[in-house]
Amino acid sequence: MTIGVAVLGSTGSVGTSTLRVLQRQRDRFHVVALTAFGSEELLKQQAAGFGADFVGLVNGSNGAGAAGCIGSDCLVEAATHPDVEIVVNAIVGAAGLEATVAALKAQKRVALANKETLVMAGDLVTRTARECGGELIPVDSEHSAVLQCITGRPEIELKRLILTASGGPFREWDRDRLKTARVEDALRHPTWQMGRKITVDSATLANKALEVIEAHHLFGLPYDAVEVVVHPQSIVHAFTEFVDGSVLAQVGFPTMELPILYALTHPERVQDDATRAFDPIEAGPLTFEAVRHDDFPTFSLGVEAGRTGGTQPTVFNAANEVAVRSFLEGRIEFGRIPDVIENVLNAHQVTTADDLVAVVEADRWARKETENRC
Question: Are residues 295 and 153 in the same domain?
Answer without folding.
Answer: yes
